[in-house]
Amino acid sequence: MADDAPKIEIFGDSPTTEDGLGFDDYADILLELIGNFDVRSPLTIGIHGRWGSGKTSLMRMVEAKFEDDEGVKTVWFNAWAYGRDEPIGLALLQQILNEFQKEEGLKEKGMELLENVVELGTDVFLRKTTAITLEEAKYHFKSSTEIKSTLRKDFKATIDECLQDGGRLVVFIDDLDRCLPEKTIEILEVMKLFLDVPKCIFVVGVEKEVIEKGIEVRYKSKEQKMPISGQDYIEKIIQVPFVLPPIREDDMATFIENLGIGGREKGYVKIVAKGTGCNPRKVKMFLNILRIRQAIAEKTGGGIEPDLSAKLFVFEYVFPEFYKDVVKYTDQDLLCKLERLAKRDFDEELEEELG
């Protein structure tokens, strides 16, 4: 690379346990909720918000607060890590049981449970991939039903052995938004069928619309009338829905500045915050694209003011059809005129020109 090539630093998309979005109060509330919940009952908490709104970061913050709590065992499950044809619900079971096997005295119990999970998974695979007879189907159904009953009972017994009195297993399920909608329903059903036992608390990060879409897909494919709406399904599975409040513009401006921007970039912090709807993931993507475009412009001799570049990208990203019209004009002052129009700082001549 040439010495005079622009140095571009790109922002990654990793979640954080450091609060930069005003989430610490939310994490404390969830921590208190989980800590004070009656362990004689199971609990599922839904963390709801749009894609990229910070669900994972909030969940990571809650998880980090349990690090020194010996009475709480945590498991993190990344749903998106599993392929389209893999039984994702069984993968969740296996991951939890693998954690149990690390505990002294529970290796044998964990192995027995894993064998049941593998057998159940094989049965699911057979029914999906082979043309079995009616008699064979009856046998597999009876066999898998027995396994399911045993699995739930043994899972509860293992939880009781693993956790002290008052202890809790907190399972964080992340990235359901990135899965196919029907996969989301599959994992929620496994939670309800097998894992909905005392001392178990699930914290699920998912956009509500993904669950609703999953219900539609499931019954549409079977040409059946939906017996339950997406909203009713959510209410049956999730006892405590926590909807992420919109991030305040001041908090988002602080978040952007804490990413390490400086110089000319500081001039369009508010533009980026507004243009992305204060969405953390979109902010990083927005800044990455701006940096790349600015570097290309500087390299090719077509430099453009960073704040102007940011404003143009807002048009392109938020109002794509309007952007197509904007770039047709050769008037260098067009954006300034549009800003004046938006602020109602204009005269009849300007209104007529842009009208």
UniProtKB/TrEMBL annotation:
Coiled-coil region: none
KAP NTPase domain span: 23-296
Domain of life assignment: Archaea
Pfam families to which the protein is assigned, alphabetical: KAP_NTPase
Name of the protein this chain belongs to: KAP NTPase domain-containing protein
